[in-house]
């Protein structure tokens, strides 16, 4: 992975970050990176737990406007990084809740008049549609996905979040950036969208039970070209955009920089876990069905191997992995906008997965 260059003449000036969602998959890695880079970092989450050394925890509910204002009364950030969202039963409720969370945070810090930049993390549902209409219909975009594609003509909570940032920027005079990763690969416990750890849990259960490691998704995903986003690449991209003037007031895709086919990577994952790989057989086998009723298997496995987490639902998110792997089209992302502006960080996708699996073993989250 390449090192990030120094990008602004005043990059050594005091920088205070508020990372919203600092205990989550992307927020926790970003918070640690900012600390290493010399920032003062406040980590906001409902129940601070795993923000990392040097991160100053702030506990607040983003939907409790008054409580959030009190919690941030002494926090005067120069930069806000919004990496948090909340899943709801309908897209209408997703829009209401997630736009309100963004609005509440930006209103709470506006009183300090210190804010210079806001970064918002969304994702490829910007192009593929919301959960209840994901990758469906006749208007699916042509890949590779590019930032200048128009918004889909459907309600989408990502659009509502963006609009809240744009309105606050016009009101308060800060710059902004929007970051659209593909599937995030990295370690986090209790995360709602965690494909890498979900596959590690599935492979561990397959080895435990003697079942083949069966491909759960579509033929298009099995054979098509894809990419993913390592959490460290996303963290470095957020830092780069915050410190690079030319990157302000723009939206960016952010992925590892390589491409792969699951028909190749599936075997590599199976080999790492020592299980039999079974490829696409003409039909979808959703992981929600493959892992249905496996809570007891995982609890027993965790007890025998002394694992730190015995609750399957805290590690695996099969519903989200099914969304990714059952898409009817290949999904690959264009990074030209970032590359033109000097972002050169690259990560091998195979390394992203295999390094994650090794880390999960070291942390006693999956068995040896």
TrEMBL record:
Concerning Pfam families, the annotation shows: PRISE
User: Which InterPro entries did the record assign?
Assistant: NAD(P)-bd_dom_sf, PRISE-like_Rossmann-fold
Top-rank taxon of the source lineage equals Bacteria
* Domain PRISE-like Rossmann-fold, chain residue ranges per copy: 78-313
**Xref: PANTHER family:** 3-OXO-DELTA(4,5)-STEROID 5-BETA-REDUCTASE
Protein name according to UniProt? NAD dependent epimerase/dehydratase
Q: Which organism is it from?
A: Deinococcus aquiradiocola
């Amino acid at each position: 992975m390449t090192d990030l260059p120094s990008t602004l003449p005043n990059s050594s000036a005091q920088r205070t970050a508020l990372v919203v969602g600092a205990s989550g998959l992307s927020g926790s890695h970003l918070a640690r990176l900012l600390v290493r880079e010399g920032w003062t970092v406040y980590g906001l989450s409902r129940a601070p737990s795993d923000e990392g050394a040097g991160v100053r925890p702030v506990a607040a509910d983003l939907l409790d406007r008054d409580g959030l204002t009190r919690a941030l009364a002494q926090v005067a950030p120069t930069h806000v990084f919004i990496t948090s969202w909340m899943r709801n039963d309908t897209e209408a409720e997703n829009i209401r809740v997630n736009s309100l969370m963004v609005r509440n945070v930006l209103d709470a810090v506006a009183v300090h008049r210190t804010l210079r930049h806001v970064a918002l993390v969304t994702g490829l549902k910007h192009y593929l549609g919301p959960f209840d209409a994901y990758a469906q219909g006749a208007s699916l975009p042509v890949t590779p996905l590019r930032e200048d594609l128009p918004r889909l003509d459907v309600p989408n909570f990502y659009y509502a979040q963006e609009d809240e940032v744009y309105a606050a920027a016009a009101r308060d005079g800060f710059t902004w950036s929007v970051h659209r990763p593909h599937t995030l690969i990295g370690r986090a416990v209790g995360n709602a969208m965690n494909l890498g750890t979900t596959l590690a849990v599935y492979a561990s259960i397959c080895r435990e039970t003697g079942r083949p490691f069966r491909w759960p998704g579509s033929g298009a995903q099995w054979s098509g070209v894809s990419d993913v986003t390592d959490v460290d690449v996303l963290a470095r991209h957020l830092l780069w955009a915050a410190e690079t003037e030319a990157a302000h007031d723009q939206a960016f895709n952010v992925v590892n920089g390589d491409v792969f086919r699951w028909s190749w990577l599936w075997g590599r994952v199976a080999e790492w876990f020592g299980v039999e790989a079974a490829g696409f057989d003409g039909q979808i086998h959703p992981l929600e069905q493959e892992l249905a009723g496996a809570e007891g298997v995982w609890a027993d496995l965790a007890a025998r191997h002394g694992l730190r987490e015995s609750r399957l639902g805290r590690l695996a998110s099969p519903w989200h992995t099914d969304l990714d792997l059952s898409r009817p089209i290949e999904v690959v992302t264009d990074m030209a906008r970032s590359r033109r502006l000097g972002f050169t960080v690259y990560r091998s996708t195979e390394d992203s997965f295999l390094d994650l699996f090794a880390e999960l073993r070291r942390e006693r989250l999956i068995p040896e």
